[in-house]
Amino acid sequence: VLGEQHTCARKPGGTVSCWGDDLSGQTGAGEPSDGGVVPEAQSVSGVIDAVDIAAGRSHTCVARRTGGVLCWGYNLDGQLGNGESANVRPTPVVALGLTGAVAVAAGGNFSCALRANGTVACWGGNGSGQLGKGDQNPTLTPALVPDLTGAIAIAAGQAHACVVKSDGAVACWGDGLNGQLGSGQAASRSSPLTVDQLPEAVMVAASDRSTCALTRANSVYCWGANELGQLGTGAPNANPNPRPIVVANLNDATHLAMGKNHACALRKSGRVACWGAGGRGQLGDGPDGGGAQAAIVPVVDLQIAASVGAGGEHSCATTAASAILCWGANDRGQLGTGNVTSSRLPVSVLDFP
């Protein structure tokens, strides 16, 4: 999973390693690093039973096998869920009072957990209604999203969140000023609203101001801001698109991720395609690529991937052999190569496998 400028990986046994920007403790390294940069993967102390992981802008959370949640990093608005705010926690703390968590999502200044019973709890900043509880009041500990049941997958953007429900519907809440809630209007909402005119979905991903969903038919639909081509329609548009529109030439997607202003999809062939902002190489389109791409472009020199992730201005993919390859901006060590040299081509993260 990829944050604004850091990256974390959960290993099969339940341990977690992170690398990249650590100025806010988001790598869980536990002590200030040289210049706030962790250029190589470091294990997060005390995390041994993670079943899911999420990276926000400058914080990280994991769902544990016990059903609890641990978070670490920036905590200005209470996004760590431990009852505190206006501080930094460089080692994991417990999100208080939370049980039954099976998945987590982390946004700009808030976090959410999907529970085994299909309900969702969120905590942290709430200036755009991103906690989904019907108001704009922040909370420092997990609070249930009212009247939301049947959730099976969750994602968080900068200030909005979305879930996939068991019937394939997608519901979103929070900041909607760029149409990222898919309601047909460019308006925010402090409680869940079903996305309009969307085929049955199995996965949802959220960026700063846009959202995409993977459908049962392996197509991808996106909505929201599109000035950098982040909806993948083939043409950028200065005006947001508040209703889902299909990503062109992509009908075989199996996994989906969104960064700040770009998105990537894993295809059935194992190849990865990306679209949207590309000025830092986050599309992986090679040294001859450049700038934003409103249509999907293949990631160069990446043969067969198993999953894909997208962050602020970088992207990563895993392989079946447990290798991790990343590309894009690396000024904070977020590519995990041991240096701060950016790359428009996939490069191997050290110590994986």
List keywords for this structure.
about 350 residues; mainly beta; 4-stranded antiparallel beta sheet; 27 strands; globular
C-alpha end-to-end distance: 16 Å
Query: Could you say which structural class the secondary elements and strand pairing correspond to?
Result: mainly beta
Please count the helical segments: 0
Q: What is the strand arrangement across the widest sheet?
A: 4-5-6-7
What do the pLDDT scores average to? 97
Give the SSE string.
EEEEEEEEEEEEEEEEEEEEEEEEEEE
* Helix fraction by DSSP (H/I, runs of at least 4): under 10%
Low-confidence stretches: none
Beta-strand content? over 45%
**Cα-based radius of gyration, to the nearest Å:** 18 Å
Number of strands: 27
Largest sheet, in brief, is: 4 strands, antiparallel
Summarize the structure.
The chain is built from no helices and 27 strands.
Description of the molecule:
The protein is mostly beta strands. Helix content is 0%, strand content 46%. It contains no helices and 27 strands. The chain has strands at 6-10, 16-21, 37-43, 50-55, 59-64, 69-74, 88-94, 101-106, 110-115, 120-124, 139-144, 151-156, 160-165, 170-174, 189-194, 201-206, 210-215, 220-226, 237-246, 253-258, 262-267, 272-276, 293-298, 307-310, 314-318, 324-328, 343-348. The strands form seven sheets. A four-stranded antiparallel β-sheet has the order 4-5-6-7, with no helix packed on it. A hairpin with a 3-residue loop joins strand 4 (50-55) and strand 5. The protein is globular. The two termini are 16 Å apart. The mean pLDDT is 97.
